[in-house]
Write a structure and sequence with these properties.
Helix content is 18%, strand content 38%. By secondary structure, it is α+β, with helices and mostly antiparallel strands. The strands form four sheets. It has a five-stranded mixed sheet with strand order 10-16-15-12-13, with no helix packed on it.
Length: 274
């Protein structure tokens, strides 16, 4: 009887050991599977992102933007400043007639002006006259015409570049030379939901340089994936995951080095929601 009891105990102990071992192996397998799945998702998060040139937009080659007010930007009082632009051969508030208006995030208010101060996120203006609160200091204004789906109009007359001094003794904390090669970020911006999150436009303005394969280039890093842009054209980003998306733009010289300037390395974040 004792021998039988001992054998039963031995069998039970062996079974328990096998069960524990099996559970550990299963747990390890699950952990390995989870790690593999996370790695696949991580790779997919970047490898599925594509960047293609946007085609099909009207050129507006004769469109022009001129700053009328303020007449002088040398000494302005801090606070609200009246801005008045003259817009030629371009209709603010109109919908841009293009297939891109249906495919991309499009403003129901129509065509407008992108007003960018010190390469910060733009404000959109659908009227040529408006007020802006400008803090004391030396600032750098870049304003350009924008299609209703926020693509900039790119010609030598569609943009205004001004150095603005506000206050009695303004200090230039940035040290920007607007005669040097300069990158100005425009889109994407903010939050994209539903259909608008599937195709995201990447757009920027370049000043005092020309992009080409042998010269200046723009390096775009989107959620860690690098793209090199050698032509000044808007692009469409597809394959982005829902949630927070990081976008970095760098203006490079012919040797692949970042061109000196406080605006030539830009980092932004947007959010995509179903």
């Amino acid at each position: 009887m004792k021998t039988q009891t001992k054998n039963v105990m031995t069998i039970l102990a062996a079974s328990a050991i096998m069960l524990v071992t099996s559970c550990k192996q299963e747990s390890k397998a699950k952990n390995a599977a989870q790690v593999a799945e996370e790695e696949v998702k991580s790779v997919a998060k970047t490898s599925e992102i594509t960047l293609l040139k946007l085609e099909g937009s009207p050129a507006y080659e004769t469109a022009a933007l001129v700053l009328n007010t303020p007449k002088s930007t040398i000494s302005l009082p801090k606070g609200e400043i009246d801005f008045s632009f003259d817009v030629k051969n371009y209709e603010l508030g109109a919908q841009t007639q293009s297939v891109n208006a249906e495919a991309l995030a499009n403003s129901g208010k129509g065509q407008h002006i992108h007003f960018i101060l010190d390469n910060q996120p733009y404000s959109a203006h659908y009227s040529p006259t408006f007020k802006k609160e400008i803090p004391e200091g030396v600032h750098h204004l870049v304003a350009f015409l924008s299609r209703s789906y926020h693509e900039s109009v790119k010609n030598e007359n569609s943009v205004v570049v001004k150095r603005i001094k506000v206050g009695e003794n303004p200090k230039d904390s940035l040290g920007v030379s607007m005669d040097a090669p300069t990158l100005i970020y425009s889109r994407p911006k903010g939050k994209y939901t539903g259909e608008d999150s599937k195709k995201i436009m990447l757009d920027f303005f370049v000043l005092n340089t020309k992009l080409d394969k042998e010269g200046s280039k723009v390096q775009a890093i989107i959620n860690g994936k690098e793209f090199i842009i050698t032509e000044w054209k808007p692009h469409v980003i597809e394959g982005l995951p829902m949630g927070e998306v990081s976008i970095a733009l760098n203006l490079l010289d012919a040797n692949g080095n970042v061109i000196s300037g406080p605006f030539n390395q830009v980092n932004r974040t947007i959010t995509l929601e179903p």
